[in-house]
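Box 3.1 — From sequence to structure: Ribose 1,5-bisphosphate phosphokinase PhnN
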Amino acid sequence: MRTRDMLMHGSTGFVQGTRPADDQANPLPVARVSSESMTRYALYFTPVDDSPWAQAGSSWLGRHPASPEPVPQVNVPGIPRLLLSSLTADARRYGFHATLKAPFRLFEGFNEEHLLQMARAFCSAQKAIVLDEVRVRPLMDFLALQVNGPLDEIGGLAMRCVTYFDLLRAPLTEPELAKRRRAGLNARQSALLQRWGYPYTEEFYRFHMTLTDALMHADADVIFTVRKAAEQHFAAAIAAAPLTIDALTIAREEYPGAPFVEWQRIPFSGLSERATMPHSGRIFFCVGPSGVGKDSLLNWVREHSAGDEKLVFAQRTITRATQANEAHEAVDTASFWRLAAGGQFAMVWQANDLCYGVRRGIEADLKAGRDVVVNGSRAYVPQLLQAFPDAIVIWIEANEDLLRERLEARQREQGPALLKRLKRAKEFAPSEQAQVIRLDNSGALEVGGQKLLNILRERK
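Predicted structure (token representation):
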């Protein structure tokens, strides 16, 4: 079950029906949940800028993919310019491209940086594909550049793209689903629409670079003339260089109806013989009782691992005010549960009358091959290992006398509250599972910090 589904089904480590009451006396800032972005992103193949293919495609459609502004469109003898512009209007809006993953909005909790990180990781594992026998051909009721192969490699790339990035895709709205279904989908295509947000994936995927809009209402002579003109127009590019899928382009549609404009073009750089999915990162879930020095250890390691782009320290969302030693996201209780209900968290737990969450952005970090360090809770470990079976639990310990000394020095609790903290420290025993690593932090900070840093550096 996907993490956002687990959250909605109660498999998140918190007890249903036991939410603490809102703190009306001293409310924390209310978290702002952004409204659904209107920007859509599409994952394309586009030829490199200065290639004969890019030049031919831009002049045929009348727009360069990297700009929303029109460029002079090719002249087709016998076809008025206005008519040719009309017959290519929708194709021009999308730009000269082949779709690898259809347009989508980002799911709440993900941003462009997550998309870019994942795209870079994806491209680092892909190999260029040289296309065979590129020709102008009819596809359904429009004209497109199509190829004869290698179909398995092309389809494999497209499906890797569809599945890998689907984490980031916001579900289609009901009006969007209804619009797609009105196109006359069969049962299988409807299922693919529901699963991937687009019906023409898997066995229905056809690599193509669209050259016209639907021509069903055009005169037969016009269709013939346009097709012959397209064949002649692209003949020079076909003769000059093979068409090669060698990069992934991220295109953006800023608002409904706007042109899709190339935002990033990331070359493939896979070194293995076969293209594959990028390696995922792992979660390092650090737990331990109050007074064990967990926050100090994590701060020491964060300072001494600065510059390691493959290591991320997750920010927590907590229903308490910020503290000097941790820059967490502070929200009130009502806002926390609204975020949870909206699928914003990859992890949720409760401890010491507070609610803790880790936002779903860490899932994109993991997909991009980055390791994620989480300041966690011992009580949440069973749920963690269900949701993230490859996670590593770092169980931080210290001797009992030192725990008491450190808790007393903090001066947060006294009397019964202090005794409650000490009692809770004994309630959880570390599991003997292989993925649970015990770390003794009874000594100096730099000693424990180096131990933790070594565990993280030996992670691969």
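Summary of the box: Residues 1 and 387 are 8 Å apart (CA to CA).
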